[in-house]
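I had to read the description of the data format several times before I understood it. For illustration, here is how one protein appears when written out as sequence plus structure tokens:
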Amino acid sequence: MSIRKRLVLSNIAMVLIPVLLFIAAVLLLVSIFFGDIKRFMNFGAAKNLDTTIINQEFTSIKKVASLSPEQLEHQNYLAAIDQKLRKHHASIIIRKDHKIIFKSSMVKQLSISTLPSFGEDDRWQPVQWVGSHHYIIQSYDFYFSNGKKGTVFIARDAGTFIHAGRALFLTLFGVLLLILISTNGLLTYFVSRTIIKPVNKLIQAAQKIGEGDLDFQIGIKQKDELGKLAQTFDHMRQKLKESINVQLQYEENRKELIANISHDLKTPITSIKGYVEGIRDGVANTPVKMERYLNTIYTKSVDMDKLIDELALYSKLDMNRLPYHFEEVNIQSFLLELIDELTFDLENENVALFFHTNSSEPYRVLADREKIKRAVTNIVSNSLKYMDKDKKSIEISIKGQADESVVVQIKDNGPGISEEALPYIFERFYRADPSRNTGTGGSGLGLAIVRRIIEDHGGNIWVESKIGKGTSIFFTLKTFV
């Protein structure tokens, strides 16, 4: 069902339902107060005449009470007045102090306890319920000649005033109906605004997005369907903005990557070219020089080959094209075997490798053996490049955590890393040496590859370091379940 149709039906209902409820309430109230709807409808002009005569008679009685109150003690006088009032459905009651000295037989239900006290007529509600009857009571307080308090009451059926309500009923009903229609009309207008206004905002937002402007907020905070639509629309705008920012960052990274690759490849190529030209020009005119030139060319070629391999590996990792073969691995036994292998490879570099664990537990993790081996090797190689001690030391330790993971720590006794450089050491091509000297810094991809491997394992990696005291690199692996 369309919004327009729902609005039309809801507004029709908002008019009809209150009107029907009002009519039903009127009929219910008439039945309660008058017992019969016909009795209510038969009240006429005669009642208006009754009210006039009763008020005139009450005025005369008040005058008598003021001028000659003793007359209100004469039963014959009071009986005559009562006779007149009965013809017009009213009765008289005279009270002296706390005793009723005259009461019409038509109001037997009324007693001292149901009548207002002396001096309280202004605070007394005119319509009083007594048993199953309701009366309109008028009272006037006075003093008898002997100083005693006196009150004259005129009591009549509350239906005496119904003729006024009946005369005004149609007018009141028409006014009420007009108010209901006006109120619902205004309500419809404001409800329509709550729909049209957010729709216009969404249209403006769509136009801005079409023009490429994503730096705005829709600002619709309604909690209805349009509010949810606006939230979804704004979420889409934010995602689109993030996507564009990522694309721009990717483009910037691509340019930086090309520049770094060009620099890192040009450096060994320039060296190779220089040494080849030296050989061609006869500079290497002795067997010793020739051997040194050829060894340098070979070393630079190996460096280029390693750089290309690392670029290829990082590219595959970055594009998720390198397959992983996860399996259950006893990380303690795995690291011990890897340390033995590294010790053999580094036996001529005066490096001491140590392994520590605070538990005999085997610590079984879910990992790809070759990738974790590459990660640990890269960390160790990176540490050795910056070692400035005669006795080089690397310690590898593991410990379990409460979150069902294992922490691997690789600590060296190198020069440490400055606080300014710590946040960037896992970035690709980052080197603390701004000159990008490959003699110490390598390709700048080693730790970036490590971070990508650990993250692909669902783990975390971080670094702690102090200048002069060495560096510790930590990473976590999930335990095998």
Remarks:
- The radius of gyration is 52 Å.
- The chain is about 55% helix and 15% strand.
- Residues 225-280 form the longest helix (56 residues).
- The CA atoms of residues 93 and 103 lie 4 Å apart.
